[in-house]
Amino acid sequence: xxxxxxxxxxxxxxxxxxxxxxxxxxxxxxxxxxxxxxxxxxxxxxxxxxxxxxxxxxxxxxxxxxxxxxxxxxxxxxxxxxxxxxxxxxxxxxxxxxxxxxxxxxxxxxxxxxxxxxxxxxxxxxxxxxxxxxxxxxxxxxxxxxxxxxxxxxxxxxxxxxxxxxxxxxxxxxxxxxxxxxxxxxxxxxxxxxxxxxxxxxxxxxxxxxxxxxxxxxxxxxxxxx
Length: 226
What we know:
nine-stranded mixed beta sheet, 33% helix
């Protein structure tokens, strides 16, 4: 399938997100950059998430809904969204995050000026579970990311835009990873591709308290990819 140049396919997997999904979708609709397509995979929701997303699909030709009959997991659902797109650029978005209006525009301008960069993230206003907010920037250039990736996840997952060649060359997200799917992907690609983070706040990122499982899987993917 021939990739559509400069179009961005935004991939989102949702599961029982009826409280927050509208804010995430509205933030994409409000983007300054207009050449985008939003592919949402409902991963077996049992609340009104599907109904809410369908109401947007009915009004917007560039929003698509795919539904898993059962919960299949984040990695499977993101791979499904990617396989149902043909854009040159693949962006991530989560249902509980909000993209600032200039997010896509800023990232596409940078990627077009820097063809050597394969994965581009941004800074974010992080909202903690207790409601406290802080501005957080990830390591900026590839050399810094390379030197720290074995200790920390180099990207806010929902801030990332990647070139199609990057994700396809690595075979997509590993469906065996129950958590830390993004961290596993970055570790598998860091020696072959170039990473970068814009030092701009272009997202509002909802930070959940880390569970023991999250910490364990983060450690596990580091060991596997060591």
